[in-house]
Amino acid sequence: MGEEAPEYLLDGLDKFSPLRCDLESQGYQTATTVGDKIYVIGGSDDGTKLSMNVKVFDKLTGIWSIPTVLGTKPVPSKGHSAVLFNNDRILILTRDSPLDDCTWFLEVSTPFVKEKDKILGTEVVAWSKGVRGDGPMPIVISGPSGVGKGTLISKLMKEFPSTFGFSVSHTTRAPREKEVDGVHYHFTERSKMEKEIMDGKFLESALVHGNLYGTSIEAVEAVTDAGKRCILDIDVQGARSVRSSSLEAIFIFICPPSFEDLEKRLRDRGTETEEQVQKRLRNAKAELDQGKSPGLFDHILVNDVLETCYKNLKKILGLDETADALYQQSMKNHKIPLCYSISKTDQKFLIHGGSNELGAATPTSFMLDASLLKGGAPGRTRGLKIYAIDPLTDSLNWIEQL
Ligand SMILES: Nc1ncnc2c1ncn2[C@@H]1O[C@H](COP(=O)(O)OP(=O)(O)OP(=O)(O)O)[C@@H](O)[C@H]1O
Ligand SMILES: Nc1nc2c(ncn2[C@@H]2O[C@H](COP(=O)(O)O)[C@@H](O)[C@H]2O)c(=O)[nH]1
């Protein structure tokens, strides 16, 4: 190649530069600077379709090169955007593509690429497709006492015994009739539990309705070691602590249809004294408020008709027969628009689509959360989250997590 990299590639894109015109005529679309190199992506294999070839300009030597490209590159699309993700990879978003096929990473100096550089003795880049999620995360179920958390969890465990495992909490409250130590709770002395909390044995603990409750690290590990997906039934304080811990989980808040229904369920259960019922109801008011705290819960379910709520819970967890089909459908239906702009905050990308008619059902803006990425080339880059944004409200009101 050998031609000089013009200033416009380094300092922004000069529309009228001959080299830019030349690159554009070859179908190259984006130029991303990473350290001393500029990665130009695009090109046309057969003179018609836009492809995803890569050229590299070394600013130090002034030399263009065609790198060795590992991995499968994205299929030709109607265009793409490239954003520097961090100093070792570029995020590529292909335009007018379904959401399950729009996010790619071009790794330019990850450990994998550096190792291949050494072995092959050439400049190496590697494609890795971004995929949503990364295997089953623990599930945190929270909500006021008597709302039906335990009932929903029991149904889940009964229907999917080999999938889910319950994190058996510790508590200082006295066992109820039919409650078995080590199954429903580890019933324990307060001083013993306090010492174990001080010793760092708990993932979280809280004073709930006058008693100490807590999730031990061992309780979560026991479920994971059994190869099951862990379910935690904990109060809102506990959910908050887990949110700020290193445990990645799905947070679900269960609401009653009304406060009266909650009161009736709690009384009808007949497990608490009147004084305790009153205390739990008082606490429920605050918990219901806290359940709406922004960013704390991923999903809020109303437990009105038990079967309906259970069905919705299964849908969230991808367990009902139609969930997969619905998910596939939504991924195909929602497309990254042809025209958009991207803004980046940390590792979250806001993709603003073109203007949308008020009331249009299909969102044209998306939020891509790449803050919890795992894996990468060779293979997939996992852990992406994609949210469609409700066009009628402000951009922080996600209408669904896809
Ligand atoms: N959708 C529902 N409609 C009517 N009753 C329900 C519903 N869901 C659960 N219940 C009943 O409400 C009572 C409380 O349910 P459950 O014990 O599961 O609540 P919980 O949220 O686990 O309470 P706690 O936090 O105190 O452990 C139970 O008697 C249960 O049978
Ligand atoms: N923070 C935690 N809360 C917990 C834990 N285990 C249970 N709970 C919550 O306590 C209340 C009352 O439960 P109950 O069995 O006495 O009715 C309920 O909201 C549970 O979710 C825990 O380990 N940590």
TrEMBL record:
PROSITE patterns: GUANYLATE_KINASE_1, GUANYLATE_KINASE_2. It comes from the Eukaryota. It is an enzyme of class 2 (transferase). InterPro entries: Gal_Oxase/kelch_b-propeller, GK/Ca_channel_bsu, Guanylate_kin-like_dom, Guanylate_kinase, Guanylate_kinase_CS, Kelch-typ_b-propeller, Kelch_1, P-loop_NTPase. It holds the Pfam family Guanylate_kin. Residues 136-318 form the Guanylate kinase-like domain. It catalyses: GMP + ATP = GDP + ADP. CDD domains: GMPK. Its EC number is 2.7.4.8. This is Guanylate kinase 1. The gene is LOC103707848.
